[in-house]
DNA sequence: AATCTTTGTCATCCA
DNA sequence: TTTGGATGACAAAGA
């Protein structure tokens, strides 16, 4: 896998080198300055005016027309942005040497009318010897579908280069390029030649060079560039290699070779490149990749390629034409069918280009989609057939997915920080590709203001609860004046009340008793609401009913109107009344709150009968139990509040996990679709020695350590290994 | 008058 | 065994 990464990472570099070797130099900045300021902004980075609100402005920069931040295109932007930055960084790369390895995967010896796409600039390297024709119908259709934004980023056609003459899409014929080239075109080409070539995001760049124009044969072949080795190649060597790879030798007089460099988008950290080579006798003929019969492009966001239909979601898409994945055997890693159109966000890059012969137009009719499932997840038959001694390979897509989803997940993390409700999770699938985080309802985020409100509310609730206890305690049990009054009435000796306070505080402040019960560990055990008991339990406990709350004013009036003793009696608790009735010589407060030793000393000081002692013990017992009951109730309430909060947290966590699950599922689904499409296309291009296509009912593609294998369904494992195995990618 | 809440109390368990 | 905290259950009082 590491090798694979290396190769693809270096692919960009070598791709650039390849262009340089061939001599094509294109100054994209020129176009960017004059034609594509938004793209320039992407490549060059945001201007200072944008940097502050980079996130939003970058998005606007991408489309240039203010895509809604919630749009699903946003991740396209990020991916494209990242990709472009990396591409641009190639300007600063210094690759001392490289090896260009290319091998022909398929060569159609027949003269066919290709149905390749062309959305990028066409550069005739022979300066008039070839002509790149851009089918305007596609451009028109795409513009119709994608709006002005597409034209913004498309470097294709007359808008950017002015070197392409409009062509009838149905014609798709060969052109005498030089005849069609205007002087302006030629001049422009000359300029381009002298300029550095730069790759725009998702651009296709067609170029070619002419050697001879006598022959009228035309080849459209696809070969892959396993980019990665490190030997030096001169321009001549490169060309020789290309010629050696491509059937130049067989047809030395082939006039023009057209390379269609598919600059792939990024899948995770991988870049994918493809090169389509088309050889014309006279000129490079660029035709539409879209099915001419396809009318969906202008009405729907899809581009029909052959029998495949993929969404065309963004303007970038039209420029991104990766229709085949290379499986360089040189990597020696397990081959992987990957879809370059699947960028890190998992969004499909729509434009699939038919790069093969015309036969491939019926891919669907030849191969059902069922074949692909077997490709991706080999059926039992495959298992039996796949006896390539190699151990079970890890699912390459898992790794790729992991890679590709990193960025998206990071975005999701941002969104997560904003918080999602469970209800919002249902929207996620539709917004996975967007910066949904921006528009997320943050009301459920732990860090969100709303949630803060919730927390505050809970806290307030808790606080209010505490306050209620406290207040009730204060109101119901004592005020300082009341305590003083009570003590004065009962002749109690002061000086020990602070001790009671300490004792009461300390008795409930040890949280260790809740160890092991997380929900309870944070329960507030500061039962300071017991403090009022230290003053005058009896009076206060009784006053709680009549003096607390609304009754305080009434009680004060009653205190004025009634004899004090009557009021005290009426407000006294039963135990206090009993105590008075039994002539207990000290207050119930002392009875209840004195430490045992002092309590016993107090009892010893007074000569009390059994009834008195029994009442005192009952009073003490009930008093303590009363406080205990209050503490118990408070703890119960606190626990309930804690559990309530825990439920909310778990609900949020569940929603987040569900969202992530959906995102993963979507990504996997998209990847499978792309693999299916690529596999179909690959399969459709494979030919036997006689140029016939393989029947899907008889053959199937299978991964192997050396590449993608074409195996016969009827072959035994051993047979398949020995006789019927064909490697799509040959080792170089 | 019925219902709900608050509070006190009892019984019980447990440290 | 005593003391006291914890808690469920019940009842009284009040809203």
TrEMBL record:
GO terms for molecular function: DNA-binding transcription factor activity, RNA polymerase II-specific; lipid binding; RNA polymerase II cis-regulatory region sequence-specific DNA binding. It is a single-pass type II membrane protein; Single-pass type III membrane protein. GO terms for cellular component: endoplasmic reticulum membrane; nucleus. It is found in: Endoplasmic reticulum membrane; Nucleus. SMART domains: BRLZ. Residues 435-471, 556-566 have a biased composition (Low complexity). Residues 615-678 form the BZIP domain. The keyword Translocase does not apply. Pfam families: bZIP_Maf. Residues 633-660 form a coiled coil. Its main location: endoplasmic reticulum. Residues 172-181, 567-578 have a biased composition (Basic and acidic residues). One of its GO terms (biological process) is cholesterol metabolic process. Residues 114-181, 421-492, 542-578 are annotated as: Disordered. Keywords: Activator, Cholesterol metabolism, Coiled coil, DNA-binding, Endoplasmic reticulum, Glycoprotein, Lipid metabolism, Lipid-binding, Membrane, Nucleus, Repressor, Signal-anchor, Steroid metabolism, Sterol metabolism, Transcription, Transcription regulation, Transmembrane, Transmembrane helix. Gene3D superfamilies: Transcription factor, Skn-1-like, DNA-binding domain. InterPro entries: bZIP, bZIP_Maf, NFE2-like, TF_DNA-bd_sf. SUPFAM superfamilies: A DNA-binding domain in eukaryotic transcription factors. The keyword rRNA-binding does not apply. PANTHER family: ENDOPLASMIC RETICULUM MEMBRANE SENSOR NFE2L1, NUCLEAR FACTOR ERYTHROID 2-RELATED FACTOR. Belongs to the bZIP family. CNC subfamily. This is Endoplasmic reticulum membrane sensor NFE2L1. It comes from Sinocyclocheilus rhinocerous.
């Amino acid at each position: 896998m590491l090798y694979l990464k290396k190769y693809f990472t270096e692919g960009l570099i070598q791709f650039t080198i390849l262009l340089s070797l061939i001599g094509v130099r294109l100054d994209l900045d020129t176009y960017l300055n004059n034609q594509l300021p938004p793209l320039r902004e992407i490549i060059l980075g945001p201007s200072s005016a944008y940097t502050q609100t980079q996130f939003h402005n970058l998005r606007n920069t991408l489309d240039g027309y203010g895509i809604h931040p919630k749009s699903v295109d946003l991740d396209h932007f990020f991916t494209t942005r990242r990709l472009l930055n990396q591409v641009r960084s190639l300007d600063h790369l210094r690759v001392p040497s490289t090896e260009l390895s290319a091998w022909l995967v398929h060569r159609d010896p027949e003269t066919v009318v290709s149905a390749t796409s062309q959305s990028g600039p066409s550069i005739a390297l022979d300066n008039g010897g070839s002509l790149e024709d851009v089918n305007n119908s596609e451009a028109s259709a795409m513009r119709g579908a994608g709006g002005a934004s597409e034209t913004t980023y498309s470097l294709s056609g007359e808008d950017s280069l002015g070197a392409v003459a409009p062509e009838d899409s149905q014609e798709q014929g060969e052109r005498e390029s030089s005849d069609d080239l205007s002087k302006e075109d030629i001049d422009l080409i000359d300029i381009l030649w002298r300029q550095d070539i730069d790759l725009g995001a998702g651009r296709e760049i067609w170029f070619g060079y002419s050697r001879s124009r006598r022959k009228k044969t035309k080849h459209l072949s696809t070969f892959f560039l396993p980019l990665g080795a490190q030997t030096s190649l001169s321009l001549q060597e490169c060309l020789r290699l290309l010629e050696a790879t491509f059937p130049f030798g067989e047809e030395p007089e082939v006039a023009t070779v057209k390379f269609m460099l598919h600059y792939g988008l990024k899948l995770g950290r991988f870049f994918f490149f493809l090169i389509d080579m088309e050889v014309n006798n006279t000129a490079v003929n660029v035709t539409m990749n879209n099915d001419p019969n396809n009318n969906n492009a202008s009405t729907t966001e899809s581009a029909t390629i052959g029998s495949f239909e993929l969404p065309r979601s963004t303007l970038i898409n039209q420029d991104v034409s990766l229709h085949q994945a290379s499986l360089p055997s040189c990597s020696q890693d397990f081959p992987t069918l990957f879809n370059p159109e699947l960028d890190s966000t998992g969004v499909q890059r729509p434009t699939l280009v038919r790069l093969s012969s015309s036969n491939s137009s019926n891919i669907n009719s030849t191969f059902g989609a069922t074949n692909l499932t077997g490709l991706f997840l080999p059926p039992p038959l495959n298992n039996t057939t796949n006896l390539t001694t190699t151990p079970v390979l890890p699912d390459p897509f898992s790794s790729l997915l992991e890679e590709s989803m990193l960025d998206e997940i990071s975005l999701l993390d941002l969104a997560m920080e904003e918080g999602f409700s469970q209800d919002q999770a249902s929207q996620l699938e539709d917004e996975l590709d967007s910066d949904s985080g921006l528009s997320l309802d943050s009301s459920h985020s732990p860090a969100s203001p709303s949630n803060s409100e919730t927390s505050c509310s809970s806290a307030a609730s808790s606080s209010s609860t505490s306050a209620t206890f406290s207040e009730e305690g204060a109101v119901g049990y004592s005020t300082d004046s009341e305590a003083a009054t009570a003590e004065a009435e009962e002749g109690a000796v002061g000086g020990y009340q602070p001790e009671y306070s300490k004792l009461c505080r300390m008795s409930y402040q040890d949280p260790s008793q809740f160890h092991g019960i997380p929900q309870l560990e944070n329960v507030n055990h500061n039962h300071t609401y017991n403090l009022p008991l230290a003053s005058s339990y009896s009076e206060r406990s009784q006053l709680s009913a009549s003096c607390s709350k609304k009754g305080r004013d009434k009680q004060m009036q009653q205190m004025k109107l009634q004899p004090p003793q009557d009021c005290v009696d009426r407000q006294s608790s039963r135990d206090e009344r009993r105590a008075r009735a039994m002539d207990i010589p000290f207050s119930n407060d002392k009875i209840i709150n004195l430490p045992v030793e002092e309590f016993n000393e107090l009892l010893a000081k007074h000569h009390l009968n059994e009834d008195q002692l029994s009442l005192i013990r009952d009073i003490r017992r009930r008093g303590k139990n009363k406080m205990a009951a209050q503490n118990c109730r408070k703890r119960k309430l606190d626990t309930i509040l804690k559990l309530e909060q825990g439920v909310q947290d778990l609900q949020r966590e569940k929603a987040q996990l569900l969202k992530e699950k959906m995102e993963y599922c979507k990504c996997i689904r998209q990847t499978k679709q792309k693999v299916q499409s690529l596999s179909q296309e690959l399969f459709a291009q494979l030919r036997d020695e006689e140029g016939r296509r393989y029947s899907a009912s008889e053959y199937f593609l299978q991964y192997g350590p050396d590449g993608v294998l074409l195996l016969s369904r009827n072959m035994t494992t051993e047979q398949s290994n020995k006789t019927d195995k064909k490697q799509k990618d040959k080792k170089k």
